[in-house]
Backbone:
């Protein structure tokens, strides 16, 4: 099976702009989660989608949003970019219908966002 | 809330040395525990996992045992190689209700193995 894919791999934006990142999960996986990785804060959970519905959300401002399509592909959007949004954004997928604590999440290579 | 604490790095070892990376956790309920590895410029790869007390996860010579009494999940390898150089993350997944698929991560430990 193909793994989790994320596009684009690299992005450079300026403050105030908005950005959309895309994630295609492993075939058959219906849960897609997003994480932000920064040197200072480490890996932080943004949100999780299943069957086009957001099931869980982390502690991020409303500028961070996402959605999931009927084919399980997901996008996340960050509006009004700030310098502190520079990070590696990781997407992970899992089947989404098993016992939550036991399911393995499979990660994509990430999108590295630089905000100038 | 849930949290994971892992030993601060960086850790520098010579090839064939013994590796231990400590990980302890705080969680309500009964979490599953994971070790992920991140190579330079890449995403996270699952290294091993354990879903109940006394389970031992193992993969590629790495091992970790789920110790409920000490709330720990220390990563060990008997003989490291240069190719093991990477950042290692300990993580937990705690179930609260039926739909909590969130992973909580430690800060990561950078391992460098010298020839």
Residues:
């Amino acid at each position: 099976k193909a793994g989790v894919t994320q596009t684009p791999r690299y992005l450079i934006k300026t403050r105030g702009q908005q950005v959309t990142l895309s994630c295609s999960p492993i075939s058959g996986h219906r849960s897609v989660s997003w994480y932000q990785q920064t040197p200072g804060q480490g890996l932080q959970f943004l949100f999780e989608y299943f069957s086009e519905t957001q099931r869980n959300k982390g502690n991020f401002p409303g500028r961070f949003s996402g959605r999931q399509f009927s084919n399980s592909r997901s996008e996340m959007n960050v509006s009004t970019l700030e310098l502190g949004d520079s990070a590696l954004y990781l997407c992970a997928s899992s089947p989404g219908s098993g016992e939550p604590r036991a399911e393995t999440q499979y990660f994509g290579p990430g999108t590295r966002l630089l905000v100038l | 809330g849930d949290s994971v604490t892992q030993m601060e790095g960086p850790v520098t070892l010579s090839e064939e040395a013994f590796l231990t990376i400590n990980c302890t956790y705080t969680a309500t309920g009964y979490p599953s525990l994971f070790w992920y590895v991140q190579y330079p410029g890449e995403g996270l790869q699952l290294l091993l996992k354990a879903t109940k007390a006394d389970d031992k996860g193992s993969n590629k010579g790495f091992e970790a045992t789920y110790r409920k009494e000490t709330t720990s999940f220390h990563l060990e390898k008997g003989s490291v190689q240069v190719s093991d150089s990477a950042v290692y993350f300990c993580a937990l997944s705690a179930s609260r209700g039926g739909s909590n698929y969130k992973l909580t991560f430690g800060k990561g430990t950078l391992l460098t193995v010298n020839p």
